[in-house]
Specification:
Helix content: 10-25%
Largest sheet: 7 strands, parallel
Number of strands: 10
Structural class: alpha/beta
CATH class of the largest domain: Alpha Beta
Shape: elongated
CATH architecture of the largest domain: 3-Layer(aba) Sandwich
CATH topology of the largest domain: Alpha/beta knot
Order of helices and strands: EEEEHEHEHEEEHEH
Bound molecules: zinc ion
Number of domains: 2
Number of helices: 5
Strand order of the largest sheet: 6-5-4-9-7-10-8
Radius of gyration: 22 Å
C-alpha cells in the first residue's frame, strides 16, 4: 500500500443529509454533496493510513501449499494470491482451468502478490494432488458433505507438518477423486441460508486459522 495517499473528510452541510466521505487530495475538489447537492464542508482532520506490524515468516516445519482446482474467476485467483502472500503460503498449485499469472489481468486483484508467491500450473489436478502426497503433504480439502468435520475443531501438532489446502471450483466444488484421496475434509460452519462462502473468503479463513491455531 502506498503511504503517500492522503484523504480529507468532507461532510454535507444539509442537516437532513450529512453525507460524509473521504476525498483523496489528488482528486478533483468537490464542493457540492453527491447525494443532495447542498454545500460540503471540510472536516479538517486528515486520514491516517495505519500500517500493520510485520511478523517474521513462519518456520518451515509448518508448511502450507494450496491446490486450486479449476478456479474459473480471475478475480478469485488474484485474491487467493494476495491472501496467500500475507499468510505465508509457500506455493500455489494452479490446476486445470485455473488462470496463472501469465495472464496480465490477474495483476489487478493480486496487486503484485503474483510475483511474490511461488506457483506451478498442472493440467491435471488429481496428478498434482498425488504428487503433493508423494512429497509428504497431507491434502486438506475445504469442502462440505457428510464426511466433513468442522475446521475450528482441529487439533494439530505443529511439528513437520506439510499441508496442502485444496480449494475447488466455484460451482462444481472439488474433483471427487481428489476428495477421495484427501486426508481431511474440513468445512467452515455456516449460519443463515447460504450453503457456502465465496471461495476466497473460505480460503482466507482456513489459511489464517491453520497459521495461528
Ligand atoms: Zn447532502
Amino acid at each position: 500500500m502506498k503511504k503517500n495517499l492522503s484523504f480529507q473528510t468532507k461532510e454535507c452541510t444539509n442537516k437532513n443529509c450529512r453525507f460524509r466521505f473521504p476525498l483523496m487530495e489528488s482528486e478533483a475538489v468537490i464542493n457540492t454533496c453527491p447525494k443532495c447537492e447542498s454545500p460540503l464542508k471540510d472536516i479538517g482532520i486528515p486520514y491516517d493510513r495505519h500500517s500493520v506490524q510485520k511478523e517474521d515468516p513462519s518456520p518451515d516445519s509448518f508448511e502450507i501449499h494450496v491446490l486450486l482446482d479449476n478456479i474459473r474467476s480471475l478475480y478469485n485467483v488474484g485474491s487467493v494470491f494476495r491472501t496467500a502472500e500475507s499468510v505465508g503460503v509457500k506455493k500455489l498449485h494452479l490446476c486445470g482451468m485455473t488462470t496463472t499469472p501469465d495472464n496480465p489481468r490477474l495483476a489487478k486483484t493480486a496487486i503484485g502478490a503474483e510475483d511474490l508467491v511461488a506457483w506451478e500450473h498442472h493440467n491435471n489436478g488429481l496428478d498434482a494432488a498425488k504428487m503433493l502426497q508423494e512429497q509428504g503433504f497431507s491434502l486438506w480439502a475445504i469442502e462440505g458433505g457428510e464426511e466433513a468435520t468442522p475446521l475450528f475443531g482441529l487439533n494439530i501438532p505443529r511439528d513437520n507438518q506439510r499441508i496442502a489446502l485444496v480449494i475447488g471450483n466455484e460451482l462444481a466444488g472439488i474433483d471427487p477423486e481428489i476428495m477421495g484421496i484427501s486426508e481431511r475434509i474440513l468445512y467452515i460452519p455456516m449460519q443463515g441460508c447460504k450453503e457456502s462462502l465465496n471461495l476466497t473468503v473460505a480460503f482466507g479463513i482456513a489459511a489464517y486459522y491453520l497459521r495461528y491455531i
